[in-house]
């Protein structure tokens, strides 16, 4: 791209994913050279609308640099048309953390709608006028708690561990300028306690995607998929929940899928949460509410 200048104004999307077979630092010099070349290219693409940078193990490289490897790439970039941005690298304790370079970069994106920060685990100190159109965010609970207040984020996806969501950061996620509609907890193993806390602070969400921690069974008296019966006590607090997606949940703890058991759960959950209209179980079976059928719930056919 450095040799083809005409591509600078034509390039609208850039996706770079650096993946390694094992979590070990790459050789410092080739990694530094690659990042330097990438930095030169990215700075030229001022017309970008979508940017994805995942630099894998490069942040493990032994270096005298005092900034995160992602910041080495984005420092000084100007993307006035950027609408979607995903940034990150492999993370480990003791690695170089982000600095104010990331903050300055985000403040320079007036039209950003979608943001992913996969390895940022602290609060972001952004001025209130930054990112005025942000509608979706994926990142750590502490980052979300600092970013969401005052912004129109309606779709939230959290990463990390369920104990990272606590009594300090969860309430602050409710201070968006528009109500949150969708919450994705598929990247963490969520215990019933987290779901109860979510139902307390975010009762108006319409879509919930969750990876249940089945080692903490919701109903010890049952086996197989019936252990999910205990979800009723949580779902009753969601007064607008329309979609419940349990597909990220591991199948090992729920046994073989049984349509009669699933139908019974759909009925029980609907009694607890009458707004439910679509349920996806761990085995990917999908049920939809149908008032015209005697059972009220129908299994979607021709599923992959």
TrEMBL record:
Domain of life: Eukaryota
Gene3D superfamilies registered for this protein in UniProt: Ribonuclease Inhibitor
PROSITE patterns: PROKAR_LIPOPROTEIN
InterPro entries: LRR_dom_sf
Descriptive protein name: Predicted protein
